[in-house]
Every structure is written in structure tokens, then in C-alpha cells.
């Protein structure tokens, strides 16, 4: 299991947050299909600065999802500014 923190900016924080509202069609459901659980974060002073803490059982499947048509469509719908995305992965020194 890999724990990752993923930061990114979005065009509209309210639109991004709505996509994460639990239920059918949510991003939780989309990632849950491959066993990923997520916690969501926003900068309290800038709702367009967002992040996710994810527990990822298979990094290969995660990358495949991000590169898939479904993943790319989700990023477009959520207004994700892909060029701002940064991921930190937990490690043990």
C-alpha cells in the first residue's frame, strides 16, 4: 500500500469539491473501483488550491486510471490544472 499526497490547482474549487461528494459517480467511487481511498483538502484561503491524500494499493493501476479516457475526462470536468499537479509518496528512510 502506497500513501500519496497529491497537490493541484483547479479552475473552481466548488466544482472540484462537488465531484468528490460521496455517492454514485463521485471521484471516491471512481478511485474506489481499483481499491484507492482518498481524503480531500483545500486551502482555507484559496479554494482553488486543492489536494488529496490517497491510499493506493497498486501504483500501476493508479497511473493507468490517470492516463485513461475516464481519468482524463474526470480531470477536465473537475477543472484540474494538470501542469500544477505534484505528488509526494510516503517513504521510510
Summarize the model shown.
With 93 residues, the protein is of the alpha+beta class.
Number of contiguous helices? 4
Q: Could you name the ranges where pLDDT drops below 50 across 5 or more consecutive residues?
A: none
Q: Number of domains in the coordinates?
A: 1
Number of strands: 4
Rounded radius of gyration (Å):
13 Å
Strands side by side in the biggest sheet: 2-3-1-4
Task: Kindly report how far apart the N and C termini lie.
Answer: 17 Å
The CATH first-level class comes to Alpha Beta
Largest sheet: 4 strands, antiparallel
Q: Outline, from the CA principal axes?
A: globular
| Range of helix content | 25-40%
Query: Which CATH-level-2 architecture?
Result: 2-Layer Sandwich
CATH-defined topology? Alpha-Beta Plaits
Oligomer state of the chains in this structure: single chain
The H-and-E topology, N to C, reads as EHHEEHHE
Mean pLDDT: 95
Describe this structure as you would to a colleague.
The protein is 33% helix and 40% strand. It has one domain: 2-Layer Sandwich (Alpha-Beta Plaits). Strands 2-3-1-4 form a four-stranded antiparallel β-sheet. The radius of gyration is 13 Å and the shape is globular. The longest helix is centred in the C-terminal third of the chain and has 9 residues, at 59-67. It contains four helices and four strands; from the N terminus they run βααββααβ. It has helices at residues 13-19, 27-32, 59-67, 69-77, and strands at residues 2-10, 37-43, 46-56, 80-89. β2 (37-43) and β3 (46-56) form a beta hairpin. With 93 residues, it is α+β, with helices and mostly antiparallel strands.
